[in-house]
Amino acid sequence: xxxxxxxxxxxxxxxxxxxxxxxLEEITVTPAGKRRVLRIVVDSDEGVQLxxxxxxxxxxxxxxxxTDAMGAGExxxxxxxxxxxxxxxxxxHYVRAVGRLARFQLTEGGELTARIITVDxxxxxxxIPGVKGRKPTARRLAFDxxxxxxxxxxxxxxxxxxxxNDGNDSDSSMTEAEEA
Length: 180
Fold this sequence. Notes:
By secondary structure, the chain is α+β, with helices and mostly antiparallel strands. The protein has helices at 5-19, 50-65, 91-96, 159-163, 170-179; strands at residues 23-32, 35-43, 75-80, 101-106, 111-119, 123-128, 137-142, 146-151. The protein is 29% helix and 32% strand. Helix 1 (5-19) crosses helix 2. The radius of gyration is 19 Å and the shape is elongated.
């Protein structure tokens, strides 16, 4: 049996999330004045569409109304996808970031900014951008060498770079969601 409210909420809500073919990334409950905010973060390999978030929000709201999981106090429910600044912590996060530029803090100290080319069970193959006309260089980085990692936002990425990303450019997914 779960001991923390977050674990109980995860057990209650995860079946609803997986039914939508999504991953439950995070559940947080934070105070906001006299209310609380229950934030459910979901993701998938294809990204998350606004309509899917709305449908999931209704299902979660119905489930919470039918239980006492949130107690008697008022709360606001938010169902969202991870922001661009979300840390890469799980294997699936790295897989979803293939083709993206990322900043790595290394366990032995120092930082590295490189494009994720491939991901396997042991680590990443990276392309370190060339500086001042030099060609990019390849590097292998094992997961145990990474202290922290985060995708870098690219506003001026060349179009042919995006095309070589095999259609896995989540920036275009964000644009579709923003337009909706």
